[in-house]
Amino acid sequence: MNTFHIFLLENEPRWEKSQSSPGGYLTTKMSTLVTGFFLILLAGTIYYGRYTQPKMSSHINAASHMTMNSTNDTHIQKTNEGLLADPKQKVNLTTQKINDLKLDTETHSLYMTTDSGANWVFVPIDSQWLRFGEYTLTTGLIPEGYWMDNTYDISADFSWFIYSSGDDVRLLTSRDNGKTWQTSIITQSVQPIRYRKAVFYGNDGLFICTSASGMSAETLYIYTTMDGGITWIKSGSTMINQPVQNVSFVTTSLGFVSTRESLFYTNNGGRSFKESVLSIPENYQTGGIDLFQSPNEVTQISANTLETKFYLLKKGPIDAGKMFACLFRSTDNGETWQFVQQLSQVEQIIEAAEIAQCDHFIRTLPDGYDTIISSENGTLSQGQQQLLTIARVILANPPVVILDEATSSVDTRTEALIQQAMEAVTKDRTSFVIAHRLSTIENADMILVMKNGDIVEKGTHSELLQSPTLYASLYNSQFQIA
Length: 482
Prior knowledge:
This protein is 18% helix and 32% strand. The chain has 8 helices and 29 strands. It has helices spanning 24-51, 127-130, 348-355, 359-363, 382-396, 412-425, 461-465, 470-479, and strands at residues 57-60, 66-71, 74-79, 100-104, 109-113, 121-123, 136-137, 140-141, 152-153, 159-163, 169-174, 181-187, 193-201, 204-211, 218-225, 233-240, 246-249, 255-258, 263-266, 274-275, 277-279, 299-302, 305-313, 323-330, 336-345, 400-404, 430-434, 447-451, 454-459. The strands form 9 sheets. It has a 5-stranded antiparallel beta sheet with strand order 1-12-11-10-9, with no helix packed on it. A 5-stranded mixed beta sheet has the order 21-25-24-23-22, with no helix packed on it. Strands 13-14-15-16 form a 4-stranded antiparallel beta sheet, with no helix packed on it. Helix 3 packs across helix 5 (382-396) and helix 5 packs parallel to helix 6 (412-425). The protein is an alpha+beta fold. A hairpin with a 7-residue loop joins strand 5 and strand 6. The two termini are 48 Å apart.
């Protein structure tokens, strides 16, 4: 509730009856009444403007109602609903797709096309608004300029984008090929977000997201709409015991959630989930499932039959360690899944990339696994280049591996991904790991501490922490242990 105060300062001259004019008192009283009436009218206007206007959904023309906002001394034009204003600049973009979204590197603006690039339409949101929260999948961080699957869709009659420019998650839509835009709030209560996805079936739709939790157990949230995204309601939430890899809904009621190890299903729109039973033949490993690796989804092939692909690793005397795409079907709405047949071997290079935690960002590159990269063109970050190097080592399968500062110059999350990849590349082979980040070598069989070119200490991680050693001092300083 807002309150308005009029303060009377100490020793302020009081209003006195005028001694020089009989009408002075009446004139002063009349002026006071007029002033008071004006203040009441002003307060009412402010109240009406702030508290009686609709907030949940807005239908605006992105070219009208312009205001100026300042961020870091740089002026950015926005609409009265926080959308960006069209810079009205000609862009030189190309695509081979009919419907596509591109980031213009000169204007740093988003543009979409529905006619194979003949015309480009400005999308009034910042590219970073699409990357809100933690923009990371179980396969790694998604590079700048690329997007998670099913976080937007483009067509001439209905384009939509999931975004956030503040504390809430919103849907941006256009039903006239970008001439006008509409915004609606999906949720204001889930931040930060990691995984996110939306699907529409006509006017019915779902938004699914997980809370960011450092790649451990996550809470999955599901929101539904029945009016094309204008209004949303929360339909369910559940805790998943591992990071969510992907989600696939067949209808607004029937859906599936996968992790690396398990598959869960719901038949009530996400209000509750149960674990599916997978009948995996004995000559395949149960780990390493990649159920929804794009473009794999659960599909309904008949009234009572669902179908999808699992990527499974072979074990045993034949094709051990090779990954195959296997067809599975369910006739009980996903409660159980039966093996149908082995389809084809997944290329060894893809398997190595998955083990090295770099498959996803490779798939998001312009030409996927055929993309030509170099250290000069800036296509990959330092951490992504490190992951690719580890993938090459896995493919080469050498008896001895030397890793020199494999986690240098990367952020904490990329360091965690590299460490996971290092566990795979050092397994069952002699490995020499040179590192200043001591978290990289905690599991080593033997640690040699060098100072000025000489070995001054040796032992395992736990042994070197038992006494006041140089290693213990360095470790405690890095992890701030008293």
